[in-house]
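Notes from hallway chat w/ T.B., transcribed later so I don't forget. T.B. wanted the structure written out for a chain they're using in a teaching module, and asked if we could keep both sequence and structure tokens in one place. Agreed to drop them here.
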Amino acid sequence: MADEKILTNAQEDESSTLVKFSKAYRFEGKDYTEVDLSGMDDLSAEDMIAVDRYLTRLFHCRPCSEAAHRVLQGSAAQGCPQG
């Protein structure tokens, strides 16, 4: 019981959306040891539509939004504050 941590709501929210990696990963010249997914709660259908439109312009075709891996990646990137 003495070793048990007591978290506030803010700390619980942060810990549930902060993903820590077992090792650092380099992406576009920057090392990442964790990723903060707290912005995922704020994503909307409008964000998904924006990603869909971006990919349509980029690839000159419309991806299947429900299954398109790049749409999911783009949506996740929208929700990451470190952008």
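Follow-up for T.B.: The two ends are 39 Å apart (CA to CA). Might be a good example for the class.
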